[in-house]
Design brief:
- Helix content is about 35%, strand content about 25%.
- The protein has about 375 residues and is of the alpha/beta class.
- The protein has a domain at about 5-70 and about 95-175 and about 275-355 and about 370-385: FAD/NAD(P)-binding domain.
- The strands form four sheets. Strands 6-5-14-15-16-13-17 form a seven-stranded mixed sheet, with helices on both faces.
- A hairpin with a 2-residue loop joins strand 9 (about 130-135) and strand 10 (about 140-145).
- Helix 1 runs parallel beside helix 4 (about 105-120) and helix 9 (about 300-315) packs antiparallel against helix 10.
- The two termini are about 25 Å apart.
- Bound molecules: flavin-adenine dinucleotide.
- Flavin-adenine dinucleotide binds near residues 35, 297 and 301.
């Protein structure tokens, strides 16, 4: 029987909800709180590779996930003129699962929270923890709605700006500006778009990623000095301008780029990072997911790492070993794997941005053809290895 019988998860994002399900499946009483009023999130789509799908299979979510997502062909890189450069695969397929599935963000959260509730998890939205005090026997938490609870363990899955990380470590680990930013917007997809298509421009890319229902999301990534405060009302115009600058006067995908001017729900995300070194716990309070290891999205693996965290922790907790032993084994298992993916994702971002001049862009495109496939094959083998 797990040592922790009652666990509070702070944060009902992808990691928090999947962890809630993983823990409920081994008999733990789970409560989840989230400061947001509902499951709506900025950003539209996300991809999950085989390792993430394998983790979802462990907690019985694979079928529901495949029902709302769709497998994607390799990522096709083009240059600014629309000339095909190289196809980058997402890794090998195994156990009959696709090697990458494209998913709706809000749709996944709705599905996962419905399943968590079926497993008996109590989820309260628009609620946060206002006071946490732990002793040897448990953790006492006061909530923003005036209620209180006592738990064997509190897990902070509250994202890159985690308040639970602040409770554990003060301001020792705060988000670090990587220099990269991402713009994302859902718009209608051209009928010809079958898989993700990235156009490499000077110092960044414009990507077109198909979604269900004839839609796609456009993503623009580039380096941005400082931390400018963009006017939210002007996001569509700014994203359009950056995409156009990236593509020069090329007519390739011009219609799709112009449709950004009418986009609603444009998300602008500075690609900040956090990497908390060992340990991610102190007594009966822990952090996981982006709260512990927010990475740049260049391997599309942040959410997959968060899901893996929860699945691995539940497996270890099921052993019935003392919490401290479970936590230290968890760290030994998770830290090297997560750190490798975190490092590689950051390196890949810098490689993309090192393309600001015509000569640098030529070098970068040659790198994509000659070195990137083998470099990614190495990462895929790590992702495919047991977590
Ligand atoms: C542009 C971009 C593209 C990405 N693409 C991919 C991809 O394709 N594949 C992939 O695997 N990953 C991708 N990621 C990364 C992925 O989105 C994150 O790693 C993942 O969402 C982390 O999950 P999480 O549950 O740890 O945190 P989050 O998803 O950030 O969830 C945290 C939750 O905690 C809640 N919260 C915050 N503060 C509090 C508080 N004080 N009290 C209560 N609740 C609180 C929030 O409301 C939120 O619901 C991408 C990221 C970006 C920026």
């Amino acid at each position: 029987m797990p040592e922790c019988q009652k666990i509070l998860i702070v944060g009902a994002g992808i990691g928090g909800l999947c962890t809630a399900i993983a823990l409920a499946r081994i008999g733990v009483e789970v409560e989840v709180i989230d400061i947001k009023p509902d499951n709506a999130v900025a950003g539209v789509g996300w991809g999950l590779r085989t390792n993430g799908l394998r983790a979802l299979r462990e907690i019985g979510l694979l079928e529901d996930t495949l029902a709302i997502g769709f497998p994607t062909p390799p990522l096709a890189y083009h240059d600014r003129q629309g000339r095909h450069v190289v196809d980058i695969p997402y890794g090998r397929q195994f156990d009959g699962m696709p090697n990458n599935v494209q998913l709706p963000r809000t749709g996944f959260l709705e599905m996962a929270s419905a399943r968590a509730r079926e497993y008996g998890c109590a989820i309260r939205m628009a609620t946060t923890a206002v006071d946490i005090e732990q002793d040897d026997a448990g953790v006492s938490v006061e909530f923003s709605d005036g209620s209180a609870g006592r738990y064997d363990l509190v897990i902070g899955f509250d994202g890159i700006n985690s308040s639970i990380r602040g409770y554990l470590f003060g301001d020792r680990y705060t988000p670090v500006r990587s220099g990269g930013v991402a713009w994302r917007a859902p718009v209608a997809a051209p009928a010809t778009l079958k898989g993700a298509l990235f156009c490499h421009g000077f110092g960044g890319k414009v990507g077109f990623v198909p979604l269900a229902g004839g839609m796609m999301y456009v993503i623009v990534t580039h380096f941005e000095a400082g931390r400018p405060r963009h006017n939210r009302a002007a996001f569509p115009q700014i994203m359009h301008r950056v995409a156009r600058e990236m593509m020069g006067d090329s007519p390739f995908m011009a219609e799709a780029i112009d449709s950004l001017l009418d986009a609603t729900n444009v998300a602008y995300t500075p690609l900040d990072t956090v990497m908390v070194p060992y340990p991610w716990h102190c007594g009966r309070v822990m952090i996981m997911g982006d709260a512990a290891h927010a990475m740049t999205p260049y391997l599309g693996s942040g959410a997959a790492m968060a899901i893996e965290d929860g699945v691995v922790f539940a497996e270890l907790l099921q052993s019935g070993d003392a919490l401290y032993d479970v936590q230290t084994r968890f760290m030994a298992q998770r830290y090297p794997r997560v750190k490798t993916i975190w490092d590689t994702s950051l390196q890949m971002m810098h490689e993309e941005f090192d393309s600001a001049t015509p000569e640098a862009l030529d070098r970068r495109l040659a790198h994509l053809v000659n070195e990137e496939p083998a470099a990614l094959d190495y990462v895929h083998r790590i992702l495919e290895s047991p977590y």
